[in-house]
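can u do me a favor
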């Protein structure tokens, strides 16, 4: 999300002495935004392992990009890949939902745990500008204050403006 050049411009750093530290702080700042919003910042392949087919598979990462495959172990414990023509993906909500096509059921699986593996892609190809700005604010805070500060009875935490920028994107866990 943030390049080294963008980070150095934000931090007003024109030397290379701190480059490795800045790269590490970029990763931390991006992870902090991802953690606060419960969203995947950069596109990534995700895997969900299930104990059989539930009536609806709710993919556990957002934003949803695409469904790669659904692989399951049938009743003979043979690995099968479910044809994409046998399920539908509803990506309209916060988390995408996968269901069998109308009038069909999920195939039967072995009784063993972890019999279904769903592989999908989630994340932003280009995160929105408010999320990027929030990450830059975190980065500045991490670079300038390398340890917690306590002033009076208040501890320094997330920049409030970063919280405001991230709030519309935040997904609350259920």
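np, heres the sequence
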């Amino acid at each position: 999300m943030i390049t080294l050049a963008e980070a150095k411009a934000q931090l007003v750093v024109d030397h290379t002495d701190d480059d490795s530290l800045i790269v590490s702080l970029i990763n931390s700042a991006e992870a902090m935004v991802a953690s606060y919003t419960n969203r995947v910042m950069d596109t990534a392949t995700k895997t969900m392992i299930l104990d059989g087919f539930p009536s609806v598979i709710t993919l556990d990462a957002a934003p949803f990009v695409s469904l790669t495959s659904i692989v399951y172990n049938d009743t003979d414990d043979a690995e099968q890949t479910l044809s994409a023509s046998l399920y539908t993906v509803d990506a309209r909500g916060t988390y995408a939902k996968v269901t069998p096509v109308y009038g069909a059921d999920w195939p039967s699986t072995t009784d063993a745990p972890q019999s279904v593996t769903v592989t999908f892609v989630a994340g932003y190809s280009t995160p929105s500008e408010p999320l990027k700005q929030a990450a830059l604010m975190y980065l500045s805070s991490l670079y300038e204050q390398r340890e917690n500060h306590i002033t009076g009875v208040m501890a320094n935490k997330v920049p409030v403006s970063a919280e405001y920028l991230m709030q519309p994107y935040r997904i609350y866990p259920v």
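The chain has two domains: 4-40+127-169, 44-122. hope that helps!!
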